[in-house]
Design brief:
The chain is mainly beta and about 120 residues long. The chain contains no helices and eleven strands. The strands form two sheets. Strands 2, 4, 5, 6, 9, 10 and 11 form a seven-stranded mixed beta sheet that branches. The chain has a four-stranded antiparallel beta sheet with strand order 1-3-8-7, with no helix packed on it. A hairpin with a 6-residue loop joins strand 4 and strand 5. The radius of gyration is 14 Å and the shape is globular. The protein starts with a strand and ends with a strand.
Length: about 120
């Protein structure tokens, strides 16, 4: 079992920046994918960005050029730097960890990001 602890959410004005962090602990399989999804009220959860332990990244089209995902494998921590935030980025952001061998996915508790116009 993998536990995820997120931090860094909050309230920011449009055009501002926030940085989310997510630390994983527990049974960490070294080959894995860590990433962020988000869910806005009344909408389905969607992928924001992900990054493999090997460094490959994947971004939603809506955040390309504004958000950057990075990770520190030694600390089992993934980060999401969010710049040029828009009101439509408002959502609960969830960190996730996927074991690339078992395909098991663990989720964090979520952190609220609110962007005011």
């Amino acid at each position: 079992q993998v536990q995820l602890v997120e931090s860094g959410g909050g309230l920011v004005q449009a055009g501002g920046s926030l940085r989310l962090s997510c630390a994983a602990s527990g049974r960490i399989f070294k080959i894995n994918v860590m990433g962020w999804h988000r869910q806005a009220p009344g909408k389905q959860r969607e992928l924001v960005a992900s990054m493999t332990s090997g460094g490959s990244t994947n971004y939603a089209d809506s955040v390309k050029g504004r958000f950057t995902i990075s990770r520190d494998n030694a600390k089992n921590t993934v980060y999401l730097q969010m710049n040029s935030l828009k009101p439509e980025d408002t959502a609960v952001y969830y960190c996730n960890f996927q074991n690339s061998y078992s395909r098991q996915i663990s989720w964090g508790q979520g952190t609220q990001v609110t962007v005011s116009s």
